[in-house]
Amino acid sequence: MSARETILKRLRERADGPLTAPESDFAVVTGRDWSAEERLARFERLITSVHGEVVHVTRDDWTRALAKLLSDRGVNRLALGREHPVAAEARAALVDTEVELVDVDRDIETWQREQFDRVDAGLTSVGGAIAETGSLWLWPTPDEPRRLSLVPPVHIAVLEADAIEDTFFDVIESRGWAGGMPTNALLISGPSKTADIEQTLAYGVHGPRELIVLVRHAGAAAGDAGGTA
Amino acid sequence: MSVPTPGVQTYTPREFHRQAHDALGNPQIRANFRSAMDGLMAKRRDVFGDWDLEALRELGANIRLRALAKLPDLLEQLETNCQANGIRVHWAEDGEQACRIIRELCEAREAKAVIKGKSMVTEEMHLNAHLEAAGIEALESDLGEYLVQLNEQTPSHIIMPAIHLNTDEIAGIMHDKTGIERTRDVDTMTAAARSQLRERFMSADVGISGVNFAVAETGTLCLVENEGNGRMTTTVPPVHIAVTGIEKVVEQLRDVPPLYALLSRSATGQHVTTYFNMISAPRQSDEHDGPEEVHLVLVDNGRSNIYQDDELLDTLRCIRCGACMNHCPVYTRVGGHTYGTTYPGPIGSILMPHLMGLEETKDLPTASSLCGACGEVCPVKIPIPDLLVRLRQESVGEGRGNVPGAGAKRTRKEAAAWKGFQWLATHPAAWRGGTAVAGKLRALAPSRLGVWTDHRSAPKPAGTTLHALVKRHRAGKDADQDTGNTTGNTKGDNGS
Amino acid sequence: MTPVKLYPPKPEKVYFFGTCLIDLFYPEAGLDGIRLLEREGIEVLFPEDQTCCGQPAYTSGYQHEARAVAAAQLDLFPEPWPIVVPSGSCGGMMRTHYPQLFAGTGEEAQASEVAGRVFELTEFLVHVCHLRLDDRGAPEKVAMHTSCSARREMGLAETGPALLAQLGEVELVEQARPAECCGFGGTFAVRHPEVSAAMVEDKTQAIEAAGAERFVTSDCGCLMNIGGRFAHQQKAVTGEHIASYLWRRSS
């Protein structure tokens, strides 16, 4: 008998007999009923509490805010996608600046060392965010691959202000994740960190040292939630 | 089993008492654990502040119970869905089989170097030693695991492997073992480890990780972490091997958020960890990164035996948060290494006897005052104190015999003593005589009751018994008028 | 955690289960518990054939012996009166573990019925007697150590402090880590004496650091352990069972 058959047989022929599966009540992880303002405020409070940075921008002027942010931080080489509107708009806006744009739609084997050593920041879109925990959720794509949010020391994520939902459970349910998962789905809540040295927090242990979230609001001016665009 | 390296301190559950003695006599260990556990307890308390914690724990327990109730079906469903997604699934009856499967997967890729994300199940099977014996280097990438590996130790906590070390000690390890300039600056040391390990991520042939939840419904492997080393391990090398105990499966994707909420809050007092990594497939033809191969190794290693027994089954609900050790007054005093097992603390004391047998681990179920702190904080409501008592029964041969090594702790002398206790306590007249006699003989009570009196004054029987006092009280004579100072035990003289 | 218990109105009579530690080492605490109940106009029945709840054998794994000892107690409470126990540890054993211990045996129903009538003394004084205390003692700083069984197994973290709070001259001080075990744990103190000693040392230090002149507890195991440690170090801090303390200060 194979290990598989042995294990399954032992489980099926359980000595104390079959078990009854209880029903589950998920009320405690849903039904927050927060308003859009509460969601945004909570998201911002939570993600900044773990060292994430939030910058409020508008859909019209966000690339200017991005350019300023890159120049303030001395980002010379920015890795980003090509097809996603976020990437496309960023490319259009940055084409005439000092910032060198690094293509990511290349097989990683051809530029692994470059990605690790010579990219200053990665720009990604996100699927949305979770208010309760201050988390971004991402489904990496061939256009914006898995490592774009991981390897560069700075991760800049662009979030639509109206794409924040209350809880992780709500996201899974409302978006029907169980109907089809991507190869890799991620929640990201702040920059990489560790407390393994005597409980002292240190950022950027393996992944990005900084996570900057550009929250894009509709309209010409930044939203009322304390925007600094 | 790994062969002890000369000069490296090894720990075994057989030596619990000696190891506890050493740890208790080490002020540095005492201080490191006390401050770490105090901090973790406070953080956990704060982070659940605005939650209906009882409802969440109830749901967590219920999800785990449901998964266990359907375990064989869910494992098959997980396998089917993983394979449909392109993840290859392997089954191992024990640690040795699992090690062999992993080694063969590495050899098939002619792997020379493996990078590892944190995985307690691979610690359980001593995978690193197995791979190294086959000429494959296995390097831990979680910072705590990395430090512990550099220091030629094993983890002392399942979530914070290097919690027994303080900053000075780590500064010494980083300097001695990696050649960086000695510094106490945590950011500098962290940055050094980052650059050292980034090279190793790039050059590794295989990445090996654990799994926090395996979702049967979608064939998804969920990994919880803060550092990003887990994402690196599962994304950068061309092959990813995920290793998990068979009990980690959950039925549906919607089961994940409650368990994740409980895990991050219970483990480290965080609302959420930095990363929640959900892997459902290897790199597809149109993708530009990610591992070409993803394997899932399902490890039994004693779990299907635990599964047979209605009471012991609760052990398998565990989601490995470590809250029981953070809140355990014994673990806090003696630290993780004292237990001499992969999983220390309360969860280790109810799990390791199944994995190693009660001959090896017979001192673990008694290494608890049954204070109940572990059961109180367990996010999936495992009745840990009850399970400790059950294992005590098994260890003296009074359980159901469902644990390997059952009866290993039984001695004729102790069994006879409890029979004597039983006889006395079921013969009331003899009991009254006995307790009264004990009272009369109080002056003869030994001034040293061995170990008790090294640290405390010896309790002496009172000059009378409650039975006698009640009798006199009923006769209308109050005891304190009647017996004078012979009842002084209750008058604040500490029973000495 | 015990589910929220519905408390009965104050009964005419109660049974008193004194516990073996009290019988042997602290009989006055048992008698003071009886006096407190009698002062509330309750007739206290003390079944003479009581011995021990069986817990020492139970927590040592000797469940057959524990069951035999427990079975000998079940018949002592034939009338439907509440059973008051001046110990969270023995009370927890009877309320929580008796039903488990007798599950599947002929005594299962009786054990559950008895368990349902078990109350810890301070619980009974607060929730059933609605005890009012008039403090006649001198000003004093006191720390309460609630036993782990009372706190966790019986869910009674509040009843002891609530009673002490009624004593006007008593200043209740809280030691660091009040919920942490003192290290007694029955046979734990004997099987793992060094670990137990480290725990009780921390506990006495915390009580002393809180400025307490005295500690009270509702469990004699903790009293023996913490008090024995203080005495061994010849400290001025003394310990007392809460029943004696309440009786002494209010009579």
From TrEMBL, chain A:
Chain ranges of the LUD domain: 41-215
Pfam families according to UniProt: LUD_dom
Matches recorded under InterPro entries: FTHF_cligase-like_sf, LUD_dom, NagB/RpiA_transferase-like
PANTHER family registered for this protein in UniProt: LACTATE UTILIZATION PROTEIN C (PTHR43682)
UniProt protein name: Lactate utilization protein C
From TrEMBL, chain B:
Gene3D superfamilies the record matches: Alpha-helical ferredoxin (1.10.1060.10), NagB/RpiA/CoA transferase-like (3.40.50.10420)
Ranges of residues in domain 4Fe-4S ferredoxin-type: 309-338
Biased composition (Low complexity): 482-496
Keyword entries, A-Z: 4Fe-4S, Electron transport, Iron, Iron-sulfur, Metal-binding, Repeat, Transport
The keyword Cell membrane is assigned to this record: no
Keyword Transmembrane helix: no
GO MF annotation, one: metal ion binding
PROSITE patterns, alphabetized: 4FE4S_FER_1, 4FE4S_FER_2
GO biological process: lactate metabolic process
Region ranges (Disordered): 472-496
UniProt name for this protein: Iron-sulfur cluster-binding protein
Organism of this sequence: Halomonas urmiana
Automatic annotation (TrEMBL), chain C:
Molecular function GO labels: oxidoreductase activity
InterPro entries: Cys_rich_dom (IPR004017)
Domain Cysteine-rich: 14-95, 142-226
GO cellular component, one term: cytosol
Residue runs in coiled coils: none
Protein name: (Fe-S)-binding protein
Organism: Halomonas urmiana
